[in-house]
Every structure is written in structure tokens, then in C-alpha cells.
Amino acid sequence: MATAVSAQNSTAQRTFRLPDLGEGLTEAELVRWLVAAGDTVAVDQPVAEVETAKAVVEVPTPYAGTVAELHGEPGATIDVGAPLITIAEVTSGGAEVTPSEARAVAREAYREEERAGARPPAPAEASGSGNVLIGYGTPGGAAGGRTRRRKGAAPSSAPVAEPARTTPPADAVRVVSPLVRRLARDLNVQLARISGSGPDGLIMRRDVESAGVTSAPQGVTSAPQGVTSAPQGVTSAGEADARTGLAIASRTPVKGVRKAVAQAMVRSRTEIPEATVWVDADATALVDLRHGLKRRDPGSTPSLLAFIARFVVAGLQKFPELNTRIEETGDGQEIVQFDGVNLGFAAQTDRGLVVPAIRNANTLSARGLDSELRRLTALAREGKASPADLTGGTFTLNNYGVFGVDGSAAIINHPEAAILGVGRIIDRPWVVDGQLQVRKVVQLTLTFDHRVCDGGTAGGFLRFVADAVEQPGGILADL
């Protein structure tokens, strides 16, 4: 319930709705709350951690004030545009504060926080941060903005308060390091209940670790939204399957990344008339080339996958029909061809299979591609890849050889038109100049949308990549 703060101020509740997280995503799973009802929050403070079909992200609030209501329990699915959190804001009752003045107060508050080692509540006047999170922005822009008077309204004669220097309250949570804050969230430790051992009561990492050891088991908190039920996917003892008569060991809801993968695969199989071609290639020369480079410069030698990625990009420039997408139009379909290549690659993570995309891969060398492969793989496995990192591909490279398999007819990553699979490189008997030798052999498999090209184009592309693998020196000289 809103209550009066003083004769000059009053509170008003504002509900922040789950923003559009980009790339057409319509929902997100609430992983956990980072605040509780009654907490004081600042502009841009993360309030919830949500998992979309693409990534796990922290959602910051564009409002400052006191948390009045949390909409949803951890594990719930929230639609984009649905209420996420309600904040009770303190608003000025005597004058209208311009955005530029609000931003000035906010900047001074953050500077004060850095000096004092505390995170103060955001200034009452701040209604937006100007920052952007994956497709949505809180109000605010360049400094010096003006507030337009409503049509027909008389100009206000009340003076506008000068931006005041904000001093953090004595009971503010005294912590500066984002690492300490994240550690506290991971250990389910409430910073407000910790006495810091650092200068002026600053909360240090050791304080959080000590509190985490003595606190209740992770996942059980005193706040209603933090109380967890039985482990997800575990059923009650004795439950039997009616069809087989066997005991059910567990039930795992299909959601998050697994749900997104399932939906994409079903759509791909349903909509795309795919065909598959494959070829074995002698990769001995490529392996020898990389070994030679590694002996001379071990610190910056591209991986074998990076070399193959470079061959793929060159092949797509020669056979652009595979770097396309089918789009529905009012009177049928059309093939959209791209000027450039965003090369996606399959990466296995603890959350499931994701496909980061290397933007403008056609502009990168093998070393540049290797750097991006490593960077995006690390982000994906740490759960830090953004939706922008995991979308926008125009062609996918799938290295299933890391799982110890030779070949696979992969499913096309909808709405792309093709995917190239790379098997493991193994020693196999191979005929060279009429003589049987042991060579390093790899199987390349191309699955393509038969609507965008015929077998001749698909075969030509696959043969180009295979020839590059077999004779890398000649191809690389032209790239």
C-alpha cells in the first residue's frame, strides 16, 4: 500500500514488465529472484535472473524504490510483456524534475557509492537509466534533455530542486565488488545481514564465504519466493508407469534450452525438405600444416576446426545458394541471399546444445575465426552468451567429431538452408598414387534444403571444402 513519505513526497507504484529479450523470444523462465519484497533497489540494479531459449541473463530494473511485489515464483515461465516486479517509487510532490537533473543525481549517487563502498538507494527523481538490455532501453538519453509540458497545462512556478549530492545511508549494504555480489547470490547469502571486515565495514569476499558456510542450505530461504520444493524432475517413490508397469525414475520438464531445441528441430523436419550428401577427405596435409605452424608459433596456431571454418566460408562465397533462407511472402515464398556470412557452430554446454554465431565470418582469417570460436564457446559454456551471440547465423558448422563419431546426418538449424557436419579425424587405410597408406581421414556431411538448390550445387560446395582439406596450402594462398 502506498504511504506518504512527507508533506513534499508521496509514493507511487510502478510495475516493470518482462522486456523483449530480442530475436522474437516470447517468454523466459524465472530462474531466481535477486531481491525480495521490501528491499530497496536502485536504477539498473539486477532484480531477477531469467533463462530464455538462448541464454541466462540478469534483468535490471529501470525504476528505483522499494520492492512492493514479485510477480512469479522461481521456475515459472513468464511471457514477454507480463508483470515482473512492482516498485514503490518516491515521487516529488512539489516540482517536476527533468530527466537531465535525474541523471545528474544518479551519477553523483554512483560516484558516492564508489567512494563509500556502499550501494545506496537510487535517488527519488531517477526514473530511468538510459541503458539498454538486449533490445529494450530505460528512459534517458543525452544529457540536457527537457521535459515537455502537457498540452493545456499551466507552466509550473515551483522551483526545480538542484541535483543534491546523495550520501549513502549508514545502513546501506557496503560492498563495491560485483564479484562479491555475485558470490553472495550464488551462496544465497543476504548482504544486508553481514558485518563487513574491510575498511569502514566494507563487505569482503571472505565475509560472504564465511556467511555461506554457516547459513542455511542453498535453495532454502526465509523469503517465500526462495523456498524450493522437491528437486525438479524427481517423482514420489512408488510411482509406476501405467503402460509399461515399470517404476518411474524421474520426470524432467521440457523447457528452457531443451524446449527451444526440440521446437526448432521439429520445425526444421516439418518445413524443410532436406537432403544429405557426404564425402571422406584425406586430412593428412591439413594436420601436417597445423603441426608445422604449431612448432613455429604454438601460441597462435588456429585449430583444425578454424581452418575448416575458413574453407566453409570460402565455399559459401563460391556457392552462395547455401547461404540463404526461405521466407514466406503474401503470395508464396522467396529465397533471401545474404551479402556476408554469419557462421554458426554447435557448442555443447551444461544447459544443452546452443549455436553461437560468428558475425561477418567472411571477413576473418583462420586465426580470427579461431579466436571467435574460443571466445563464443567460453561464453556459451559459462552461460554468459547473450541472445545476440546465439542468433543470426546464416550457415552452421557442426563438429560432432569431438564426441568420437565419424558421421551424422544433422538437422538443419531452422531457418538456415544448410549445415555441414565434421566427424573425427582418424587413421584409415587410403590409396595414394596407387599405394596403400595410413592417412588421417575425416568425413564431411552436408545436409541442405532442397528448395534453395539442387544436388549439383550441394555436391560442388562439399567437394570444394573437401579439396581444401586435402590441399590446404593452395586454398589458403588464395584466401
TrEMBL record:
Its EC number is 2.3.1.-. Residues 153-164 have a biased composition (Low complexity). Residues 13-88 form the Lipoyl-binding domain. The keyword Aminoacyl-tRNA synthetase does not apply. It holds the Pfam family E3_binding. Residues 215-235 have a biased composition (Polar residues). Belongs to the 2-oxoacid dehydrogenase family. This is Dihydrolipoamide acetyltransferase component of pyruvate dehydrogenase complex.
